Amino acid sequence: MAAASTHPSTLVLHAVRLLGFADVGRLARRYGLDPDETGRWLGQAQASGWVEHADFGGAAGWSLTEAGRRHNEALLAAELDGLGARARVLDVHRRFLPLNARLQDAATRWQVRPLPGEALAVNDHTDHRWDDRVIDALASLGRQLVPLELELASVLARFDGYADRFEHALEQVLRGQRQWVDGLGIDSCHAVWTQWHEDLLATLGLARGDES
Prior knowledge:
212 residues; mainly alpha
């Protein structure tokens, strides 16, 4: 069975959820959509009360309303159950959880490097061995993400590309651009991983506190 292609209007709403707050251009790029078409779908979603537009300190963008969040999950649930793939996605989610715990540990170690008498000392990135161990952990997690993505993307095409984006971020880190580990506003390792996690949660209609 060929992977299902999610309707563009659903992809636009879903992109708003995954990105949290973004302008039309960034939302369109998330799934390779036409910016004008994306703008039209956003207008319709706004009229339905599913998204809202705001300007914070000169940064304008779209965000999901609570009604939009519920509608997004309903659309994804109907798509998933229509494919008869819920058990398959649940199994991938189950296998993902221990990897996610390791990612959270790596992210913490990137930000914090305990010192004598200061367990929560900020990592100043002067200990290259410490940082290299974190990067090695990220590389391992990236490799383990690949088969999970392949399994999901064979059912739902929108899951394709996460592993490549994670690998791209890691390549930037290895070139010395360390902000690509957890930087904001870029497709950093942490940002890509967080979007993958949110995609799973939205698809299954789960809250983070309910995962176990």
